[in-house]
Write a structure and sequence with these properties.
128 residues, mainly alpha, 2 domains, 6 helices, elongated
Length: 128
């Protein structure tokens, strides 16, 4: 089941939580205040929106809410990429491939990983 779209501010906070969970509103707001300048109230509102959309869960621990993702980071990223491709790129990977070949700075390691992915795709097509 696809989750609702995520805005830019939500994505910034979700990315931080995916890497640092479980977190409190205070720990996220300290980070966001330092990097983006947003207030604690803004962070709380964004985290609540993410929770209502199904991206975050919260548990009350010693009188303080701890927030964590509802799914593992890898699963969450796949869902977000799928939504981006479907909604922003109209389901086509071509604009992303053009970006990779013409504008992105891709390391040798990433090129090797892309080659492995393409080999895996080819194998899947040959042996469904």
């Amino acid at each position: 089941m696809a989750l609702p779209n995520v805005g830019r501010a939500e994505m910034d906070i979700l990315r931080y939580i995916l890497d640092h969970h479980p977190v409190t509103v205070r720990s996220v707001s300290d980070y966001v205040a330092e990097t983006k300048g947003h207030t604690r109230t803004t962070v709380l509102n964004v985290m609540e929106r993410l929770r209502q959309k199904g991206y975050l869960k919260r548990d009350l621990v010693d009188g303080v809410y701890n927030y964590a993702p509802t799914a593992p980071k890898s699963q969450m990223q796949l869902s977000l990429v799928r939504d981006f491709v479907n909604l922003s790129l109209g389901g086509s990977l071509r604009p992303f491939m053009v970006y990779l070949t013409e504008q992105a700075e891709v390391s040798e390691q990433e090129i090797d990983e892309l080659k492995e992915l393409v080999n895996g795709l080819e194998n899947r097509r040959r042996n469904p």
